[in-house]
Design goal:
heterodimer; A: 517 residues; alpha+beta; 4-stranded antiparallel sheet; 16 helices; 19 strands; B: 334 residues; mainly alpha; two-stranded antiparallel ribbon; 4 strands
Chain lengths: 517, 334
């Protein structure tokens, strides 16, 4: 590693203007590993997108564009996809990139030790056609396969073998946990877990350089008050996130501003569909669709957004936000806030005055506990007595898995940025591989029938028609009560230009540090 | 004497075992590490397999036993979050906490003694009373708030306009978080070797030491007032000795005995209380490590930290007890 550093430092010293632009940014969590296949979480994948690359990548507007593959086309009869690789790409360590590395990265990322192996569930084989052509064969037609592998990052096979990092290590450490050898625009100069990670530009990068950063330093800062102070004092150039309650203050301060956008994460309420009784032994009112619809009309989403989200979030009518592929225009209306209608539906269902528990995490989503408190108050106005049970997320998922809930709060961000994703995980009948987050046990034969058809439909309009049907069923049946799309709030120093993407990934190669720094 | 020492050591080991047991029992309420370790696309099979790998499906006492057997051999396990040996992580993070504790302790001791003597000698002075009133803040404000106030006061800074001029002075400029530039000595990282590192330690050290400082100050003051009323001080005055000789040669010496004892005992709490200060200042010590571990349900790290802190407290108490026995013959068990 050091050999390359010296070489690149010399190259930098000669190639760049004397102006050195150090950029510092902070987020609440440190990426727990530098291994692109070991942990499938946004902090890890987002960070590694700056140093590793996939065959394809997402642009500023989330559209799919070529990265290590220049082009790709479906194989005849839906047998899979052919990727034509970019020639002349080198890894940070100087190794040449070829089809061999793609095959190796497939084997590594689809192995049992990998946390991203589910991306390759439909893949039956990967065939190296020649040095710069790879065929990825699938067991059924996969129209959105290229979209689903934007975060599948390619590692050099020789480097991994040499350093004994053939497989991702999850409960131990291997060489790839702290060392990086990707093809990305930046390389890791030093890494101190939980403390500081320093990136420098890779001068052998194949792409066109749009940034002017000569050194980028990432530090985790957990405490939001400290992060805001660090931004205001100039110690940090960007913080993610800015707490909602501080956004106005940061915007008013000199030299900094808040960049806000909409994340891909939809926040919703889920129900115990298949429980015999509620936790307190009363009959399960949520088995009745009228009660679920009533909750939809009882929750005043605009008020929640105004009071708790600082007015920067958007209502959500379905399991995905409008920015996602396969969003259903037909189902774009959220049930209107109508307490009278809610009361009459509850009376019809005979659920008036029912007592139940609303389970809620208190450290997972933006202001999650405050939102739940507001919901409890809103439900009380229509005659439903909810008791709030808020807990840290580390206790929350086990509780949901063990069916200890009546009604619960959930946020979902589709990894593939496609409407099929939440249907697969949240709505399909709960099983070994499908419906793994369908805690409420909702089961609908038509949805189960639609999902495989959606997954293998090549024709876009036919696919959309099925997605529309599914979205309509989910909305009519009030399977979930989607409320809003979570906002993204970044605090940025004046003069820094960057792009905020809905997946909340921070892409360093779009950063320009302004003159006033 | 030997039997007393043996008995005390045996008691200490027992205390450690109980602490470990209580800690392990508590971990079950912290949650399940599996969910924080796996991504959203995990299958139930993945969950079961990882549980198996980590030995989480073993009975509780067996898990505790495994931990003890390994800990005795110096193996504290592998962190769930970082995948690295816990011992390695703790060794990496300990210098930050120890340096912070050292500087806080030194500040607390120095200012505590100086102000304590001052407020005792000038008992009726305006300044002394003012210092006493202000010291109440140190006792009553929560550490967290003191830290945030210091960050905003001296890190971000407040603009102060000098009256009748256009000159504006900003009180900020101190580092708002972290340790600054550190120098790695191989077995220790120090922030004392760079100006940036020295600047970085000031605000967190004040935050952590303020409470201890007021404590020491009040203790010194009370002791000093006590001593100044003693007969031998009167005699000294009657002999015509000057104020300075009386205050600093005769009175102070006798004041210091209880102060040293308390300071020794407080050293443990400084290290344990560092958690809050480290969180506020993103100070990369073991306290912050522990807070991270709780959020992630990183059981090996939590267990190691709690054992470390309890070993420290038990050791300090043991040493203090033994010292008393050496100093005071009346305590020796016949």
């Amino acid at each position: 590693m050091n050999r390359y550093l010296v070489a690149s430092a010399l190259a930098l010293a000669t190639a760049l203007p004397a102006q050195s632009e150090t950029f510092r940014w902070a987020a609440t969590t440190d990426p727990q590993t530098m291994d692109p296949h070991a942990v499938s979480s946004a902090p890890v994948l987002g960070f590694l997108n700056n140093v590793y690359e996939g065959l394809v990548r997402r642009g500023r507007d989330m559209s799919i564009e070529g990265a290590l593959a220049e082009s790709w086309e479906p194989l005849p009869d839906g047998a899979g996809w052919r990727f034509n690789l970019r020639e002349g790409v080198t890894f940070h360590g100087g190794e040449a990139f070829s089809a061999e590395d793609v095959l190796f990265s497939y084997e590594r990322a689809s192995s049992e030790d990998s946390d991203v192996s589910s991306w390759f569930a439909p893949v039956s084989d990967v065939v190296v056609v020649d040095e710069f052509t790879v065929d990825i064969l699938t067991s059924s037609p996969q129209p959105i396969f290229p979209d689903s592998i934007a975060n599948w990052m390619i590692m050099d096979s020789g480097w991994a073998a040499e350093n004994g990092a053939d497989r991702p290590a999850r409960d131990a450490e291997n060489f790839a946990t702290r060392n990086v050898n990707g093809t990305g625009a930046f390389m890791v100069q030093s890494r101190q877990p939980d403390l500081e990670t320093v990136l420098v530009p890779f001068d052998g990068w194949w792409g066109e350089v749009e940034h002017n950063v000569t050194e980028a330093i990432f530090t985790p800062i957990q405490n939001s008050a400290t992060a805001v102070a660090a931004l205001l004092s100039g110690d940090i150039d960007l913080i993610d996130p800015v707490p909602v309650q501080d956004a106005a203050r940061v915007n008013d301060a000199d030299g900094v501003y808040v960049l806000d956008g909409i994340e891909a994460r939809v926040i919703m309420l889920g129900y115990a569909h298949d429980h015999e009784t509620l936790l307190n032994g009363d009959p399960n009112i949520f088995a009745d669709v009228r009660v679920r619809q009533a909750v939809g009309h009882a929750v005043n989403v605009p008020a929640i957004l105004q009071a708790i989200m600082g007015g920067v979030a958007e209502e959500a009518s379905q399991l995905v936000s409008p920015a996602m592929r396969g969003y259903s225009e037909a189902a774009s209306e959220r049930p209107a806030y109508d307490p009278d209608l809610a009361r009459s539906l509850i009376a019809e269902a005979g659920a008036d005055g029912a007592n139940f528990t609303l389970s809620c995490p208190n450290d997972r989503y933006l202001n999650d506990e405050a939102v739940c408190q507001a919901i409890v108050a809103m439900l009380a106005q229509v005659g439903l007595n909810a008791t709030l049970d808020a807990m840290p997320v580390s206790n929350y998922w086990p509780e949901l898995r063990e069916d200890n809930f009546d009604m619960y709060l959930l946020g979902w961000s589709p990894g593939t940025f496609d409407a099929e994703h939440p249907i697969r995980f949240l709505v399909h009948t709960n099983g070994e591989r499908l419906g793994t987050w369908n805690f409420g046990g909702y089961s609908n034969p038509r949805i189960d029938e639609l999902l495989p058809l959606i997954q293998s439909e090549i024709d876009d309009s036919a696919r959309q028609a099925m997605l529309d049907e599914a979205a309509q069923i989910i909305q009519d049946d009030a399977v979930y009560n989607t409320m809003y799309v979570q906002p993204l709030l970044w605090g940025v120093r004046d003069g820094i230009e960057l792009t905020q993407r809905p997946d909340n990934f921070f892409i360093l190669r779009w950063v320009t540090v302004g003159a006033e720094n | 004497m030997l039997s007393f020492i043996l008995r005390r050591v045996f008691q200490s080991v027992l205390v450690l075992l109980v602490v470990g047991l209580v800690a392990f029992a508590m971990f079950r309420f912290v949650g399940d590490p599996i969910d924080t370790m796996l991504g959203q696309e995990r299958t139930l099979q993945d969950i079961e397999r990882l549980r198996e790998q980590l030995g989480l499906n073993k009975p509780f006492f067996l898990q505790y036993w495994d931990f003890l057997v390994r800990a005795v051999q110096g193996d504290l396990g592998i962190s769930y979050r970082q995948g690295r040996p816990v011992a390695e992580i703790i060794v990496e993070r300990l210098p930050a906490t120890l340096e912070l504790a050292l500087v806080s302790g030194a500040l607390a001791l120095f200012f505590g003694i100086v102000l304590g003597i001052f407020t005792a000698i000038r008992r009726d002075g305006i300044t002394a009373n003012f210092v006493m009133s202000v010291s109440l803040i140190g006792v009553s404000l929560p550490t967290f708030l003191i830290g945030v106030l210091l960050i905003y006061g001296f890190g971000v800074g407040i603009d102060i306009r000098i009256p009748f001029t256009d000159t504006v002075i900003n009180t900020g400029g101190m580092p708002t978080f972290g340790r600054g530039d550190t120098v790695d000595l191989g077995w220790w990282t120090t922030g004392f070797a760079t100006w940036d590192g020295v600047q970085s330690i000031i605000l967190p050290a004040i935050t952590l030491g303020l409470y201890q400082m007021t404590l020491i100050m009040r203790l010194v003051r009370a002791e000093m007032l006590e001593v100044l009323r003693a007969d031998y001080i009167r005699f000294a005055r009657a002999r015509g000795l000057g104020d300075r000789a009386i205050n600093f040669r005769h009175a102070l010496k006798n004041t210091m005995v209880p102060v040293i004892t308390v300071t020794g005992l407080q050293l443990g709490s400084i290290i344990a209380f560092a958690i809050i200060t480290e969180t506020v200042f993103q100070w990369p010590g073991v306290g912050l490590l522990f807070i991270n571990a709780i959020q992630f349900v990183d059981i090996p790290v939590m267990a190691a930290y709690l054992m470390l802190i309890s070993v420290m407290f038990v050791a300090i108490n043991l040493i203090v007890d033994l010292l008393y026995v050496l100093i005071d013959p009346r305590l020796r068990v016949s």
